[in-house]
Amino acid sequence: MMSTKHKDMNNKATKVIVFSLVVVFIFLLNFKIHLDYDYIYHLDEWDHVSYAKKINEEGSYRFIDQNFVSRSENEVITPHYESGFHIFLAELFLVTDLDPVLDYKFLAALFACITAFILFTIVLHLTKDFYTGIFAMLFFASLKSNVNILGSWFFIPLTFSFAFIYFFIHSVKRGVEENNNKFLIVSAILFLTMFIVHPSTGMIALIIAAIFIFTNKKFVKRHKKLITAGIVSISLIILIILTIKSSLINNLNNLPNLISFIFSNFGKAVGVVLDKISFFNYGPGPHIKYNFITQYGIVLSMLGVAGFFTALKDKKYRIFLVWLGFTFFFLLTYQFFEFTLFASQRRIIYYALLVSVIFSAIGLQYFFSEFKQFMLKKKVKEASINTIKIIIFGLILFYSFFNYYTTPKGVELYEPVSGSEYDSLMTFKERFGEKKLVYSPDFKLTNAIYASTDSYPLISRINKIDGKPIELFINESCPPNSTPQKIRDIDFIITHNPLNCSTFELVQNDSLFIYKRGDLSD
What's the pTM? Predict the structure, then answer.
């Protein structure tokens, strides 16, 4: 007969194996989209790599707009509200010596695993049940992605902030409920990190935390001065950060001048904040009205409802109930008025999904507990009950991951550059060096130019100069002296099709046509 000690050891070993397998599964699930594509998928990812590389190139945190650069205007500062993410990437590339383009494909899968691990620890702390934490990890992994709603397929500020919002909410909960200042300090650090990484996530998390704190009367009475100071400090910090990153200011290189500017232009500063938190209609991108149940799945939604009513009975879930109620309120607001605050509808629905996986895990735990009690009353052996539970769980997972890689029409994965095109860009870099001014009529290809070649793209998604399509200047003018200076500064043109222009000579013809300005020396 096996001793209790051996049983415990076997139980721990089983849990380690299960947890490890789940982590590997989550990594492979996210990485699968790169099995037949070695490069960066989303244009936003290419942009973030460009900003990070620019930081390393300049050795400072000054942001140059890679989407609209010429030698005569390379000092134009443009607002980048996700600078914390770019700084993180820049440091990551420096410390690890990762190839910013070729190794970027691993980061989304890696950070999905990190987020799942943090979620697991939170649910384990809440429920004291190992397998409920595993349920939450798998339900998080089942959340679908596409190039519009985004998600864990991509490594961008939004997905990077997933781990932070989980950790932040958990820290606020413990800080308030346990009256623990250490957790509150950690919460403040996490909020500031989120706000410079992804402001929408930071604002959503802050409002959820504020609602939770103000519903805890004992904590409010005990810390009135601290809360007042916190509100004033956070409000000022938000104003400073958004004003710094807006186009309102130039050459304010010290804090006193900055604070003076903000207060003397308070209306403008507040306007910047309101502009960043108000979303009428849909916002940028395809207008898709995502349905929560369709996006999440009927089975997980039903488990979420069960978990919701289970959580209502226990105060320890209060902050997660606030999170759920807050996001669903704005989902309903958008449904009827096409208006949200702090984030667009497609972001709000993802924040709702992030908390829903916790309730679905709790719901499944409750269902299995009730199911076991029912079957034991029917004299069913425990081994048989466990077998049935595994089968049920397997069916739930099958349904949850069914069509996981299927995306709505119009928001499918796309390949900004092919393998042969990337090779062509690298050949161009080797032959002609860096820091050239390059134009390409393909805006997807343009986004890859700086990240791949360290040369500056003239323009990206706008593809217009002085209100006219840039192709007109190239194809019709070829380009004469009357053409804007930005056009006459072009060093190279990279196209998919031949260019008939005597001003530029063909210097490379493989998967791309690369033309050099005639008077440009090698």
Answer: 0.86
